[in-house]
Every structure is written in structure tokens, then in C-alpha cells.
Amino acid sequence: MDLNTLWFLIIALLFTGFFVLEGFDFGVGMLLPWLGRTDDERRLILNTIGPFWDANEVWFISAGASLFAAFPNWYATLFSGFYLALFFLLVALIGRGVAFEFRSKLTSPGWRQVWDWVIFGGSLLPPLLWGVALANMMRGVPIDAQMNYVGTFWDLLSVYALLGGVSVTLLFLLHGALFLTLRTEGAVQARARKVALSIGAWTTAVTFLFVVFSYIETDMFSKLGIDPGTVPLLAGLALFSVQFFIRARRDGWAFAMTSLTIVLSTATVFIDLYPRVMVSSLRPEWSLTVYNASANPYSLQVMTWIALSVLPLVLLYQGWSYWVFRRRIRLSDPHEY
Amino acid sequence: MSSVLLARWQFGITTVYHFLFVPLTIGLAFLIASMETFYVATQDATYKRMAKFWGKIFLINFAVGVVTGILQEFQFGMNWSDYSRFVGDVFGAPLAIESLAAFFLESTFLGVWMFGWDRLSPRLHLASIWLVAVGTTLSAFWILTANAFMQEPVGYVQRAGHVEMSSFGQLIANPQLWLEFPHVWLGALSTGAFFVAGVSAFGLLQQRSGTVYQRSFAIAIATALVSSLLVAVVGHDQAQHLMQAQPMKMAASEALWETSPDVAPWTLVAAIDSEHHRNTFEIDIPGVLSLLAYNHLHGRVPGIHQLQAAYVRQFGPGNYIPPVRTAFWSFRIMVLAGMLMILFSLYGVWVMMRERLERHRQFLRLMVAAIPLPFIANSMGWIMTEVGRQPWVVFGLLRTADGVSPTVSPAMVWTTLLGFAVLYGVLAVVDIFLLIRVVRGGPEPEEETAASPDLEVAPL
To answer: Does the pLDDT at position B449 exceed 50?
Structure first.
């Protein structure tokens, strides 16, 4: 395997980490105003993701920065091309990040309510935008011979892309609800389970529809064939199984299955893309690939050494932090957020 | 306005804003880590209350620093895509290392520290705040590695219209980096120190929870003295290095139109006429520019006209003169703020060693008023160094005007510029409002059970 492919895998890994980890805290953020009926319940919900959300978001920042280092042209085309979408994403992430910290610093109910809705909006918008972005990346966008995106913001908002957005949003919502069933107890847990049950089937249906659309809208059919292969099929099966695990009250299994769905779906997107990284809808030869978008071999070598020595450590200490805060949170606990 | 100008305004506004919070959090991280170290070493609960009180302020600012930092990571691609393509093979690496090696460390252990007071042993808890402090420093190091390359490109080869990394060792051994990094890091330490000293002075004036504020002031003022002295020393070294690496920046920040005589005078103030390339009025101090540039009383400093002519020969026709007035005044304001910081902290240490601080109410008021000084110095330093490098974005290799995204229209940049400006403005207001509330609330009472009346302080 050459370094270009290895870096494609590392980027895929970073995005996967981001979707799996930040996915549930986006979901928790979306559920906050609906599942938390009293202020104490809302604080409980916030504290389930309190120690984690920031480090989860670093997976996204690392993915972006690694794009810059390993595939400067991918970074430049993607971020200048999806300009306004990225702006909305950043506004959402900025609002949400400070809201976690600011919300409980004052007791005024009005103050807290404002930040709760900022958290809601800031958690809803990113998955929607990510779904739209991924759909567009698979289908292809107008990229010219100079690797520049020549469409507009509105070109990104097709029915297909919006379906992708809804599908990712539902998936994260489900993922977040299941995370809450693992981290809380009592009334909040019961409500989270109820939400998971009622949206589980919808999520499966919309995602299935999105996959069908993907076969029509993208070159997935010609690339993957009628049998899409093990990875996407397992993703579908894992998602399908979630509702049975919820009914059987095996919350841990259900959460593991949404995690698996996210991992395998992200993998499917990247498998479908490879060796392209940005598909040009104008002419196939104008697509960016792991070869024409990459940094020079020496730079990739240096980055490989660094990433391969640092990432295992990151996984180790981040895993440890989840272990430290493994205990369920109770209403009677002191709440930091 | 053109896309280039708008993109520059956006970068300037968002970066200066981001850098109000970053040095504060770097400095506070180290001060809080020191306080908690005293707590673990002495078991004196006052130190724990100190760590928690400053920790609350730290977290509010850290949040703003983190979220505004996300934009920093992505706006190269958004507004400066040609820059990103040109320089990505070299510039991307330190940014990626920053997020992999520093951001993960900071964010993970900050979460552990914030939520872990009751879950971890005191030593492990202490280790987590030190890891946060180390993380903030690593982050500064790697982002400055990237910036140092823009000031003084090393370890690269130019090929097919872009630069490629040829030596990672040279990239991190960049002499510019090893002056810039200590200068920025010490400046950050002094920012945290002046902030803690100023807020403690405010607390002492209010006569509340005396020991927390007294001890905080003592730690802060000592740190402030050492760091603000050293930051000036390193700054002086940096000026000497500038003479070799970017003499035009030096000439511009001195408004030195013609090469100086052998004993170069330093212009204290000047009325600069950029259009006609002359100063209509100036006050000079003999010999000081030679001292600044060479650390001797002799030595010619090349002037703007002479350098312009040399650059035309080297790089071809063009205007290589940065905005002189901005470079000149930002440098002077930075130096003035730095000098005041040294004086105030010197006086503060002298007072602390002789008698009780509370008697010097005038001085305490002065320290409250001095809180903005390091923030002014930090911002002016960056404005000087970035404006002084113009018209280059990467010195000698790429002009700023050639780095902008070709397909992003001025209307789009206007949208994001206004959007971020409004958002950042709101954040600033909320942040300051919250800080005032937290400071007014003061540290937790000694029993650690009751919360202060106007502020909900959950037991951590």
C-alpha cells in the first residue's frame, strides 16, 4: 500500500472517529430540550457528554488539519467550494461549544433556556450539513480543470443531498438517544429509550431510501455492483437490528449497533470514493484523487511517522477518560454543566 | 472592496480576536497548575479554592478560545485556497501535528480535570491540569512552526508552482521559530499573570476572601515580573534576527526611509507621510536603533528605499513596502505596554516584599486598570509582524494577493465576515458579562458547601 492510500485511510479513520463520537453528542444536544423537562434533568443530560464533547470535536479538527497536511488540494477545494455550508457549520459549532460552558453559570431560567436552544440548533445543523456534504462528495460537484469548485451554495441542496442530511441527522439522533440510555437512569432513561424506539424504524427506512437514491444518483452502481459487498450490507443489518435490541432492553448492544452502522457507513462512503477524493461532475478526469491532491512523498512520510506514533496514544488516553466517567449520572449528583 | 482585502480583514479580525483568549488560557493553565501543585504538596485547602476559582474563569475563556480556534483551522481553505495549495505540503504538517498531538491532549484532559475532582486521586487530578498546560504549549509551538515558515521559509524546495517539504528537521529548527515561540509563550504567561494579579487586586479592594486573593496576587506578580522581563529580552533578540531575515519589516516598523548613519538614532514618535515616503516630524534618541538592531551602539540599518531597490532587483518589479504607519505604531504601542508591565510588576514585587499589599490601594487600582496591557501588547505584536511582512504571505515566495480563493466572490466573503464579526461581538459581550459575574461572586467560601447568592456554583 502506498502512502497516499494510507493517508486516505487515516483521513477516513479520523472522520469515522468524529462521526461515531461526536455523533452521539450531537444526538444528545438535539434531544436536550425535549427529554429534559426540568432544569435538573437538562443538567443531567448535558453532563452525560460534559467530559467528552470537546475531545470528540477534535476528531473533526484533526481530520480537517490532516486533509491540509496530506491532501492540500482536497482541503483547498473542499473548504473553498463548500464555503457557505462550512460557514454555517462553524457558526453552529461555535454557538454550541460556548453554550455548554455558559449555560449553567447563571441561574436565570431565561438565560438557560436561550443556551439550551443554541445547543439544540448547534447540534441539529452539523449532522444535516455533513449528510448534505457527503452526498455531494459521492455524487460529484462541478470542479474545473484547476481543481476549483465552480458551482454555488444552492447547487449543493438537491433532494438527494437533503435526504442524505436527514438520514445522517436521524442516525445521530438515534445514536444519541441510545447513548443516554447507557449514561442515565430513571425517567430520562425511559424517555430516551422511548425516543429510540419511535425513531429507530424511521431511521432505517430513510437510510435505506438514501442508499437506493445513492445507487441512482451516484456511480455507486458501476463501482460497487448489484451486490454492494460486505461492508454496506453489514451497515444495513446493524441498523436494522437496533430496534430489536432496544425492545429487548439490551441498550449496550443497541448502541454498539448504531456505532457499527456509523463506522461501516462512513467506510462505504470512502470505499465508494477511492481513489478519488472529490468527484468532478463536469469531467471525470478533473476529479481530485489521492494522487493529484496529495502532498509530496517526503511530507507524507514525516506525517506517517508522527500520526502512527501519536494516534495510538490518543486512543489510549481518550479511552481511559471514558473509563474514568463510566458511572451512570444521577439527578442527585453534583453537576458541573 | 476586493476579495483579497476582505479576506485579509476577516483573517485579521478573527485571528486577533482568537488571540485575545489563547494567551490568557495558556497563562492561566500554568498558574492554576501551580496552585494545585501547592495544594497537593501542602494539603492547604486555600490553594484548592484558588485552583477552582481561577479554573472557572479559565473554562469560560477556554471555551471561547476553542470555538474560535476551529475557524482558524479552516479559513485557510475557505478564503485562501491558492495559498493552501501553494504551501500545504509544508504548512499543513505542523497544523495537523498541532491537532493530533496538542488539541487531543488539551481537550481530553481538560474534560478529565473539569469533571474529575471527585473521581480521581489528587495526584492524577493534578497531572491532568499539567497535561492541559503542556498541551497548550505544544499547540503554541506547532502553530508558530507554521507561522515561522511564513516569516522565514526553510526546509522546502519549490517545484511546479508550489513548495514541498524537504526537511522536517529544518522546519522545526527554524531560527525564527526559536525566537518567536519563547516570545509568544512568555507573553502568554505574562497575560495570565497580569489577569490574575488584576482580578486579585480587585478582590482585595473589595476586601473579600483575603487569603485566596493575597496568595493569587503573590504568585501572579512574581510570574508577571519574570515573564514580562524575559519577553522583552527575547523580543530584543528577535529584533536582531529580523535584521537578517526581514530587514524591510525592521525598516518599516522604524519608519526609516533612508539607510541610517553608523550610529543609528531611534525614532520615538514620528508624523509619517506614507504617500511621499518621508516623516514630516520625528523625535530621535541617538544610538538606540543600532542597539536594537545589533546590540551595539554602532551599525547601519538599511532604509526602506534601499531595500525596495534591492527587492526589485531580486524579485522583479513591484511594491515591497509594507504599511509603514501601522508597522511603526503597533511596534511602539507593544513596547510601551511591555515596559509598563515590567515597571508595574517590579513595583508590585517590591511592595509585596516590604509590607501589606492592602495598604497600597492606589497600586491595587492601577493593577486592575493594567489588565488590558498584555492583551494590547499581544495584539500589537501580531499586527506588527503580520503587517510588516506584506506584501508577502510567505516571505519571498508568495504574495498575499496571490493566495486568495479564486472562486469565492466578494459577496461570499462579506457574508462570512459580517457573520463572524457579529457572532464574535456577541461572544465578547457574553464572555465579559460572565467573567464579571464570576469575579463579583468571588471564590467559594471555605466550607465549600454554600454557593454564593448571585451565582450558582455547583460543588465540583
So the answer is: no
